Amino acid sequence: MKAKFSPLQLLDFKLLESHYEFIVPKNEEINVKELFQSYPVDIDFGIGKTEVDGEIQLFTKIEVNRAGKKPLAGYKLMVEGGGTFQIQDPDNVEEGLRNNLSQFSTLNMMINNLRNILYQITNLGPMGGYLLPPIDITQLLKDKSGNQE
After folding, report:
1. Which structural domain range is residue 59 located in?
2. How far apart, in Å, are the Cα atoms of 34 and each of 3, 25, 37, 42, 73?
3. How many alpha carbons fall within 13 Å on the CB side of residue 34?
4. 3-state SS assignment for residue 80
5. 71: burial class by Cβ within 10 Å (0-12, 13-18, 19+)?
6. Contacts of 43 (CB under 8 A, 6+ apart)
7. 44-70 pLDDT per residue, tens
8. Residue 70 CB burial class (10 angstroms; 0-12, 13-18, ≥19)
9. Given pLDDT bands bounded at 50, 70 and 90, which one contains residue 140?
10. CATH of the domain at 19
11. What is the dihedral of CA 8, 12, 18, 22, to 10 degrees?
12. Total number of domains in the chain
């Protein structure tokens, strides 16, 4: 099948900050898969639009196992990235699709880029690569809009 390209373009992606720490487990008998699934994950983001060519800027921060005073064993992680997006020919894109692309799709792309970085920085670690679980983007957007009211 021939791929049809989206009008949304990722113009630039930068890793702004990262933190990796390994907390040695006290118990040798750890199920790594279950441990990774129990990690608390916090995601924050900020969307901004510029007047320059209608660019959309998105900053996204993901924290894994950093909530609370006592993190779980294994990885304690944080990555923060910034992306610049643009919708090609926005006047010919339906408003609903334009809103979906500028909010949902941009955030989804940023989380996926940061997911890849999380995996890369842990892949050579003692417990192997940490793969961030799937994230409900719709709920993140609802939570963010609820916090800003």
Report:
1. 8-130
2. 37, 14, 5, 18, 12
3. 3
4. strand
5. middle
6. 60, 61, 62, 63, 111, 135, 140
7. 999 887 766 779 999 999 999 998 788
8. exposed
9. very high
10. 3.10.420.10
11. 60
12. 1
In a domain? residue 122: yes
Strand 41-49's sheet: what is its strand order? 8-23, 74-87, 56-64, 41-49
pTM of the model: 0.91
**CA 14 distance to own-chain centroid:** 12
Percent of the chain with pLDDT over 90: 72
Per-residue pLDDT reduced to its tens digit, 61-119: 999 999 878 899 999 999 999 999 999 888 888 888 888 898 899 999 999 999 999 99
In a domain, 112, yes or no: yes
Q: How far apart are CA 39 and CA 70, in angstroms?
A: 12
Residue 145 falls within a domain, yes or no?
no
